[in-house]
Amino acid sequence: MNKFSEIIETIKQYDKIIVLRHTNPDPDALGSQKGLANAIEEAFPNKKVLIGGNNTEGLKWLSTMDKLSDADFNGALVIVTDTANTERIDDERFNSGDFLIKIDHHPNDDPYGDQLFVNTDASSSSEIIADIIASSDELKLTKTVAYYLYAGIVGDTGRFLYPATTQHTMNVAGEFIALGIDAAGINQHMNEVTLAQAKLQGKLFDRLKIDESGAAVAVIDDALMNELGITREQANSVVSAPGHLKEVHSWLEATEKEDGTFRMHLRSQGPVINELAKEHNGGGHPLASGADAKDLEEVNQMFNELIEIVNNFYKKGE
């Protein structure tokens, strides 16, 4: 029995299933969560399937959460998608169920769960869910399920522009489109920003500090967010913006949190940056990671470390 079959057999054993994902979810977290939940509901209408976590205002068009009680976890199968480590699971009760499954495409630095499937070659967790469904006699790829999974794949591949996009990724996405999903509508939702967010992008470029190596850093502090009237969640819309510049190859974006610390977004077009993230209470993909910095001094420290990583990368001719 392969890993996919084992997961499906476990799903069949439980009448109550809760699907969770990581905090501050992106389209892949929500798409893989909701896509899997819908596939289970459609295949097994007698099962109670719930999805949990905090709602994300800017992604309510994609998915909204159920309100979970402690009793919901009693005797339940809990499945966590798109979440590398337990600290990022968006419900502290994740381990309160009867059995725990991890499904993910991030490096498996925290191999939690009673059963797990991790494929770091997959473009997204949504692609993995599509593969699980394709391997099953019970689970079916319906138009509704495909909608959520397509959104997840588009989100994590940057509209199929990132290196993780493979022929298999495109084949899977093609199956979704063949089912008649509103691909144009999904792309429009993802492209949409408020006027304040558009102004933030201009401010970001004004603040962007670019080293001659091609490493860059920008800080989005409370003062700027208050000036533009945007939330921290809305500020995340400009994370990819520095990568549009010819002069920038790897970058950090620091967004101030309520407690005065900073959430660090790390991105790269070549040099591996997830080890840097791990050194600062974070982690993620080789070219896209997150971390934390306690103050601006640590932000600057990370920038200097990024410069060194970029310089070493290009010295080696990689």
TrEMBL record:
InterPro entries: DDH_dom, DHH_sf, DHHA1_dom, Oligoribo/pAp-PDE_c-di-AMP_PDE. Residues 227-311 form the DHHA1 domain. GO terms for molecular function: nucleic acid binding. PANTHER family: BIFUNCTIONAL OLIGORIBONUCLEASE AND PAP PHOSPHATASE NRNA (PTHR47618:SF1). Pfam families: DHH, DHHA1. This is Oligoribonuclease. Residues 16-153 form the DDH domain.
